[in-house]
Write a structure and sequence with these properties.
A five-stranded mixed β-barrel has the order 1-2-3-5-4. Strands 6-7 form a two-stranded antiparallel ribbon. The protein has helices spanning about 30-35, 65-75, 80-90, 95-105, 105-110, 120-130, 165-180, 185-195, 195-200, 200-215; strands at about 5-15, 15-20, 25-30, 45-55, 60-65, 140, 150-155. It is about 40% helix and about 20% strand. The N and C termini lie far apart (about 40 Å). The protein has three domains: about 5-65, Nucleic acid-binding proteins (OB fold (Dihydrolipoamide Acetyltransferase, E2P), Beta Barrel); about 65-135, Orthogonal Bundle (DNA polymerase, domain 1); about 165-215, Helicase, Ruva Protein, domain 3. The chain contains ten helices and seven strands.
């Protein structure tokens, strides 16, 4: 099993990256919480990974922090959740907020995750309350993207996104929202309502779209 990857960040999109490890490109699916703190393309990166084996494919899910990976593993173990919904959960809320919502039994907040209705949200509360790790507040320090540099607060400004044309960025955002469980027409409709400044940054645009779609 592949536990982590260290290499060059060859490509990055809001829901997936390609990490070049000694000339081999590994495609890794990531949540938005990881995408927001990735280094620039061409720089070194270290991702903690979980391999997800399906009948038709072997997929890698990647995370920058142990907390993200641990929460993903626990969520993925709940019947009816699976890897896709677990990634959607981490793209909607940071791991600290997810854990806090479960401990507070806040099913209303959890039901904002795409694909999670009130009934599944209540099951998450019941099944996860004694299994999720105790996490520090979201403002606490966490490992850097490379895994080597001193830790930085999660409030550190996001890396400047690479140059992308508006149509390409929009396509990437639609693909990310579809990957999180939304319909492409709904994703496109919401993206058309976002102001230009929000659409200039992938993470900001995806957060804004998720906020609207989860209402």
């Amino acid at each position: 099993m592949i536990a982590h990857l260290r290499g060059i960040l060859a490509e990055k999109e809001p829901h997936q990256v390609v990490v070049d490890v000694a000339g081999v490109g590994y495609r890794v699916f990531i949540p938005l919480s990881t995408f927001e703190r990735l280094p620039a393309t061409g720089e070194s990166v270290r991702l903690l990974t979980v391999m997800h084996v399906r009948e038709d494919a072997m997929l890698l899910n990647g995370f920058l922090t142990p907390a993200e990976r641990e929460v993903f593993v626990v969520l993925n173990s709940v019947t009816g959740i699976g890897a896709k919904l677990a990634m959607a959960a981490l793209s909607t809320f940071p791991p600290e907020e997810l854990v806090s919502a479960v401990y507070r039994e806040d099913a209303t907040l959890l039901s904002r995750i795409p694909g999670v209705g009130k009934r599944i949200a209540m099951r998450l509360v019941v099944e996860l309350k004694d299994r999720l790790p105790a996490l520090p507040p979201a403002s606490s320090a966490s490992p850097s993207p490379s895994g080597d540099a001193p830790s930085v607060p999660t409030t550190t400004p996001l890396p400047t996104p690479g140059l992308q044309s508006a149509p390409t960025l929009r396509q990437d955002l639609v693909a990310a929202l579809v990957n999180l469980g939304y319909r492409a027409p709904d994703a496109e409709r919401v993206l058309r309502t976002l102001p230009a400044p929000e659409l200039s940054d992938p993470a900001t645009a995806l957060r804004a779209a998720l906020k609207i779609l989860s209402r």
